[in-house]
Design brief:
Blueprint (H helix, E strand, L loop, with lengths): L9 E12 H6 E14 L4 E14 L8 E13 L4 E14 L6 E11 L4 E12 L2 E13 L1
Antiparallel strand pairs: 1-2, 1-8, 2-3, 3-4, 4-5, 5-6, 6-7, 7-8
């Protein structure tokens, strides 16, 4: 999902693992995610599109409660800083899936990408969903694939 210098529109899919930070870092130990996007080539160095995904925060066993999960839906933009590196962001809404009472909130994701090949990219990002009473955020590392 993110920053290939393609010359046409493209579906992208990926997965990531992360460490919860901030408010979520106290009670959650690990984060997993998956992403899908459809990007349009706006110029030689800029892609824009739509992104959706799934983010799951695993609750630390020392705490009572349930894991937290979100379905982020966002607009996405990627700028190719060079042939190998890209920078971008996703902005949208993270729909709260679990636990009960999770209403979701504003979703944001700045992302850096390094192209491993024409169809595979290594990404690093900071994901956050602002919810009532705090923020679910994580620092992630992932792989994305052009489909």
């Amino acid at each position: 999902m993110f920053g290939f210098t393609a010359t046409a529109q493209e579906f992208r899919a990926g997965f990531n693992v992360g460490l919860p930070t901030g408010d979520a870092g106290d009670a959650y130990t690990f984060a997993l995610g998956a992403d899908l996007s459809y990007m349009w080539n706006v110029s030689d160095t800029f892609d824009a599109g739509l992104a959706a995904g799934y983010s799951h925060f695993m609750l630390d066993g020392d705490f009572e409660g349930d894991d937290a999960s979100f379905l982020p839906i966002a607009v996405a933009g990627r700028f190719a800083a060079s042939e190998d590196f890209s920078i971008g962001a996703d902005l949208g809404y993270g729909i709260g899936i679990s636990p009960d009472g999770n209403d979701g909130g504003f979703y944001y994701r700045p992302v850096l990408g390094y192209n491993l090949s024409e169809s595979m990219q290594l990404t690093g990002s900071y994901r956050g969903v602002s919810v009532d009473g705090g923020t679910f955020s994580s620092v992630t590392l992932g792989l994305n694939f052009a489909l």
